[in-house]
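Quick illustration for those who missed Monday's session on complexes.
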Amino acid sequence: MRTETRAEDLRTAVRTARARGATVGLVPTMGALHAGHLSLVDHARSDCDLVVVSVFVNPLQFGPGEDYETYPRDLDGDARRLADHGAHVLFAPDAATFTPTAAATTVHVAGLTEHLEGASRPGHFDGVATIVTKLVAVAEPDRAYFGEKDYQQLCVIRRLVADLALPGEVVACPIVRDADGLALSSRNAYLSAAERDRALALPRALGDVAAAWDGDADAARTRLAGALEAAQGVTCDYAEIADPDTLAPLHGRVAGPARALAAVWAGPRESPTRLIDNVALPAVAAAG
Ligand code: AMP
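Prediction with adenosine monophosphate bound:
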């Protein structure tokens, strides 16, 4: 595996491989890689000849007061894990070069970004969309891999790629969870054992909603919100039942599939950890 830090060098490496007939898979990450990230790398490895993984803690997607400075960073460990999983190129640009303060362009995806995560994290998706556009422009992938863990992000990127006719197919990969059900996240490292125990309310509430799902979106939303509001040690930010593509809130009985999405704050009030999770709610066959 080779490491590149400059966009021009990544572009050259990719174009050289492509000239030999290689297909290219891109896996954008912020590093501190865990089995969730590595599952994306494994998917890319099974589909593509050249797998490029970016590790970049993107300052544009952190708001004021968020954890940009303290976000876990472990580039040496990441490089080892990526080499073990057969990645070919690690792209690790530095923030000053890849997100210069003089840059004047922001990519904004309207509508999809205004509620859920977007409501609590203004500007977050502009930062994500801008950097993903740049990574795709440089790597020109045949496929780009994203986790369903960040489901709204996945929808935003699908829309971005379609609207701007960016190269590459967006491939969604399922959520990887720990044995206790908590979705793997670099931010789980912030939680003590007791806080983590209480954070399990999030996957449990989503699992219960999925198990009880009968197509009644309002009942499902009430059940999800109720469970998270009643849970000890977490504060519910949102609990939503939404269209799986547009993320528009659903009401009444719905025939087609839906997505249950939720965010909570866990840990101490002075420095809470934001956790997000979601689950698919399948189409319900019409009665009779
Ligand atoms: P991040 O480093 O948090 O920006 O995540 C990079 C990519 O890994 C995103 O596409 C995430 O959705 C994906 N990802 C993070 N955690 C998981 C997980 N537990 N399961 C599947 N994909 C994940």
